[in-house]
Every structure is written in structure tokens, then in C-alpha cells.
């Protein structure tokens, strides 16, 4: 579950229509009060996008939370997909029937806040009997915590987040006497040798945008800085783009194209390396033939740094939730970040633990011994960063993906394309202030 092209529904224009309507949700505080009076647990409605094994694994944690105390009861509903969840949230905001909490791509937060949908968590985090202690806060990976921080407030907690890793075919490495590359330059140097045998050196997913973002970040040219300075046509970003396009132009690398994900040609041994989300690991474990020997490593360093742009979901609370519901939602969020819980969720889902203690836990370390392909994913936590959250991010990302597609399918000049993307992004940010 990687970053996907956000629907136009996420655009500021669509969300702006909800500003007035979203002041109250359907989390009836009166029902909460009556529940309290009758000593029944406060119901915490929770919408998410998990399906199949992910849904079952998550429900195990929900059941564990519900059994661990008597004050709150989390009732979860799967909406089936990111897009369906987004559509349901939009519709619920209009009809004032929002749940207490939900999963959301963290880059949606800026648009949600602008439209008045989200309840800040700061009071829950910093005060009360269930506040986050200094030790608990420091245990959470800083970049993961940043996925919920916007305009100086905390609107979300990290949950189902993935890192970027390099996948490699051990058999092909041995055949061609190659080693796992530690830099992009080293990776590109394998191109001529492999091309002679009609092998790709590297295949991306359907877009290389997250690799470009990581390389630009490593070079000190973050796409959009926390102060909203846009660096799309920064010379450092342009150089990173040219590095990728050089590999593609020479036939060393390509995007997945009709395959959508690199994992398919990788499993068919059509490439030595693939790069993508750590969430691909469980899928590859299932689809790759048993005869394929493969593993993962950190994404090659660029400008001396290996970086990993985070992708995935955080948990948010909607405005309109009663104080009791807010307390319950926070209790559940905090429960999910406990050492054994985040570790077990990582084992069952393929995401990475959001805390340092979760990675070091016996549960997760025992799992890494059984499935060593996840070691690099966990190691990448220390090299990860959160994309800057801002209102209009959905529009920006659509433009970014369009730019990438044009460089691949239409051979658009990347320098001119980045200059155009710079202008579009600046306009997007300005129009959403």
C-alpha cells in the first residue's frame, strides 16, 4: 500500500465546501453522555481501508484493546480502499455523520484542517492521566511522529507507515559477480553488463516520484520545505532528476508500466533490482517463485545519504467527537503505539513498527530471524522522513505524477517540466493559504 494518485476529491476546492458543514459530526455527544450515565462503554467508531489479512490483523488489536478496559469500545468499519474511504469521509462531512476517528494518508491532513474536519490531539497528549510521557514520546520515531504534525499542532498518530527499500535478486547478483550497491552511481555502473543480456538493472513501480523525492531530500532540496519554500526547479532537484532519467534513457531502468508494480517483473527475474515500498515485501513473499532467492537493502545513497520517504496512513480524530469520545480515541491510539502492539501489527501487516522499542522487541526480532527481508525496512526507519504537509497537497501530487509520466511516456524535457511544476506548486500553495 504505497502512495497512490490522490483523487480530485481530495482537492482543496472539494474540501472547501465542507468548511461550514464539518463543524459537527454524527458522533453524538448526547449518546456518549447517556452511555456514561448507564455505565456502558463509550463507542469509538473507526473507519479504515484495511481488507483481507490486514483487516483481520487489525481487528485482533481492536479486540485486545476492547478487552483491556471497560470504558471504551472501538467499533471498526472497513471502507475497502483509500479512494472509497476518502469518498465516505467527504459524504459524511456533508451529512454530519463522521465517525469518531479514521485512518487517512498523512498528506491529507493539511486539506482536512483547512476544511475544519480534524480535532487536535495536543491536550490529550500533554495532559491528563493518559498523557504521553517524555519516554513514550522519545520512543516514537521522530519522522513517524512528524506525519501527524501540522502548523505546530499534532493532528494524528503514526500507524500503517512504510519505508522505501531496494530489492535484489541474489541469484543474478552471484551470476554476474555483483554486490549490493550502496550508491546510485554504483547501481548505474551495472547497466552495460546487464543490458547485454537483456536484463534491467532497476525497475521502479509505476512512478519514480518517491525515489526522486528521496534523492532531492538527500541533496538538501526538499520538494516543499516546512516553511513552504518550493524546490522543484532547484538545481539540486534537477540534477537528481537527470540521474534517474539517465538510467532510464540508457535502458538500464524503467518504470513498471502496465505491470503497475515492479514486483511482477522482479519475480520473473527480468531485473536484478527493484525499488519500492516495504509494504511490497509480504506480496512478493507470496507471488515470487520458491526458486527465487531475494532480499532487501537500504535504498542506495545519494549525495552521501540513504533516505526513505514515508508513505501510508495515520489515525485522526474528527471534530464533533465528544470529550469522552476524544479520550477514548486517544486511549486507542496510544494503545496501538505500545511496544508489543506496534510490533505485532508490523509482523501481521508488513508495515514497520512506529517505535524504537517495537523494532527491538522480542516479537519483532524473532520475526526478522524468520523473514530477514524485513530487516532493511526496519533499518530504513532511521533514514526516513515525512513529506511536508500542506493544504493543496493532493493537487501538487497529481501534478507531480503527471510530470513523471510525461518524462517517461512523452520524453518531456525534465528541466522544463520541473520549472513548470515549480510554478504550479507555488500557485497551489498560494491559493490554499
TrEMBL record:
Coiled coil: none annotated. Residues 421-433 have a biased composition (Basic and acidic residues). Keywords: Signal, Transport. It is found in: Cell envelope. It comes from the Bacteria. The keyword Transport applies. Residues 412-433 are annotated as: Disordered. CDD domains: PBP2_UgpB. Residues 1-22 form the signal peptide. SUPFAM superfamilies: Periplasmic binding protein-like II. GO terms for cellular component: cell envelope. This is UgpB. It comes from Schleiferilactobacillus shenzhenensis LY-73.
Amino acid at each position: 500500500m504505497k502512495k497512490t494518485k490522490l483523487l480530485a476529491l481530495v482537492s482543496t476546492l472539494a474540501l472547501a465546501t465542507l468548511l461550514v458543514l464539518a463543524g459537527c459530526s454524527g458522533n453524538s455527544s448526547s449518546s456518549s453522555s447517556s452511555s456514561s450515565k448507564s455505565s456502558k462503554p463509550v463507542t469509538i467508531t473507526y473507519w479504515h481501508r484495511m481488507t483481507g489479512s490486514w483487516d483481520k490483523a487489525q481487528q485482533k488489536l481492536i479486540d485486545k484493546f476492547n478487552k483491556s478496559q471497560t470504558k471504551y469500545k472501538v467499533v471498526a468499519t472497513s471502507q475497502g480502499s483509500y479512494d472509497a474511504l476518502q469518498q465516505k469521509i467527504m459524504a459524511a462531512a456533508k451529512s454530519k455523520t463522521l465517525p469518531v476517528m479514521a485512518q487517512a494518508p498523512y498528506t491529507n491532513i493539511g486539506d482536512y484542517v483547512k476544511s475544519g474536519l480534524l480535532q487536535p490531539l495536543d491536550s490529550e497528549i500533554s495532559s491528563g492521566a493518559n498523557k504521553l510521557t517524555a519516554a513514550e514520546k522519545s520512543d516514537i520515531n521522530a519522522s513517524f511522529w512528524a506525519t501527524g504534525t501540522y502548523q505546530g499542532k499534532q493532528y494524528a498518530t503514526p500507524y500503517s507507515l512504510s519505508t522505501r527499500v531496494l530489492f535484489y535478486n541474489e541469484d543474478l547478483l552471484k551470476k554476474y559477480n555483483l554486490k549490493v550497491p550502496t550508491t546510485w552511481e554504483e547501481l548505474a555502473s551495472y547497466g552495460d553488463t546487464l543490458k547485454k543480456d537483456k536484463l534491467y538493472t532497476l525497475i521502479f513501480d509505476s512512478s519514480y516520484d518517491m525515489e526522486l523525492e528521496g534523492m532531492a531530500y538527500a541533496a538538501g532540496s526538499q520538494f516543499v520545505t516546512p516553511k513552504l519554500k518550493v524546490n522543484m526547479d532547484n538545481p539540486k532537484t534537477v540534477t537528481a532528476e537527470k540521474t534517474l532519467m539517465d538510467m532510464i534513457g540508457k535502458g538500464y531502468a524503467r518504470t513498471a508500466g502496465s505491470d503497475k508494480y515492479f514486483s511482477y517483473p522482479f519475480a520473473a527475474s527480468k531485473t536484478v533490482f527493484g525499488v519500492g515500498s516495504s509494504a511490497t515485501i509480504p506480496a512478493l513473499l507470496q507471488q515470487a517463485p520458491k526458486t527465487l532467492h531475494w532480499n532487501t537493502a537500504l535504498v542506495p545513497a545519494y549525495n552521501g545519504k540513504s533516505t526513505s520517504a514515508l508513505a501510508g496512513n495515520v489515525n485522526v480524530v474528527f471534530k464533533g467527537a465528544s470529550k469522552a469520545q476524544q479520550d477514548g480515541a486517544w486511549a486507542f491510539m496510544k494503545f496501538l503505539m505500545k511496544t508489543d502492539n506496534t510490533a505485532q501489527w508490523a509482523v501481521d501487516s508488513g508495515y514497520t513498527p512506529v517505535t524504537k522499542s517495537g523494532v527491538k522487541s522480542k516479537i519483532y526480532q524473532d520475526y526478522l530471524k524468520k523473514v530477514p527481508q524485513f530487516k532493511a525496512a526496519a533499518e530504513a526507519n532511521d533514514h526516513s522522513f515525512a513529506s511536508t504537509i500542506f493544504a493543496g497537497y493532493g493537487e501538487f501530487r497529481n501534478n507531480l505524477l503527471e510530470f513523471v509520466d510525461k518524462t517517461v511516456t512523452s520524453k518531456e524535457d525534465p528541466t522544463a517540466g520541473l520549472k513548470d511544476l515549480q510554478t504550479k506548486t507555488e500557485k497551489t500553495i498560494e491559493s490554499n493559504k
